[in-house]
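User: If only I could read backbone structure tokens as easily as an amino acid sequence. Those tokens are not coordinates but codes from a learned vocabulary of shapes. Could you go through the record with me and say what the backbone is doing? Here is the record:
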Amino acid sequence: MKVLVADDSLVMRRLLESTLQGWGFDVVCSQDGEDALEILLGPEAPQLAILDWMMPGLPGPEICRKVRARRTSGYTYILLLTSRGRREDIVEGMGAGADDYVVKPFDKHELEVRLRAGRRIIDLQSELLRVQEALREQATHDALTGLWNRASALEALERESARAARENRPLGVVMIDIDHFKQVNDQHGHQAGDEILRAFGARLTGVMRPYDFLGRYGGEEFLAVVPGCDAAGLNSHAERMRAVVEGLPFRAGGVEFHITASFGLSAKPGEGAVDCEGLLRAADDALYLAKRQGRNRAVYLPPQGG
């Protein structure tokens, strides 16, 4: 773990550096407060810091205040190193945002124990962030395919619709349904069906632009939100998706499946605003037409009111 040592005394820096390296820390040193603050606010800031109370530029407590004022998910555990042992000084330092303090001349065993406590706190916070990210992923993504879930895809549609209205840009919506998918589940089981759904989502993702949104709408239905696409562009985009699905067989459970899909398209024109529900209804109606016309095709309908 990386630790910052900030002290204007060369002797103290060398002593701390040698001690910390002996305990397995990666040490970064600074001799003044402004440089220490820059390091702590940088993109690869150490998660542990030992700051001298009195330094040129900025004192340790002021560095603590500025570090605590930032708005980031990471946390820096800060030890103040001070010759001040009065209760008032300790209260002042802790009130500025320090997590702990060590009085000079420091005792190595005491410093090690305090750093060990800081390391535990940093590890616990990292685990908390990991759990939070996992929960966010579960809340926004489909567990089977890893794509956006229905709620997140609809949220993306609302967001992109507002953006398109502000910027007078077109916005396309594609409803996608795997043809005869029920036969896969009925004849080969749901495990094979799940493999097909995962591979299907991955194959579509491979031909979409980085700023497009693809979500699992439900069952074997998917929803694509395609910013900046008018009717002509959306038809070309859907044809690429249709071709990549049909082009190569899917494999699941050692069996090859020749899968096709139907696509219902609708697009908001470059000017004006269209209700999201109108776009979805038009795309859903177009999908129904694609099914009636023989499947494995893309059908476009203008949005209601468009």
The mean pLDDT is 90. The chain has two domains: 2-138, 150-300. Residues 2-138 form a domain with the Rossmann fold fold (CATH 3.40.50.2300). The two ends are 59 Å apart (CA to CA).
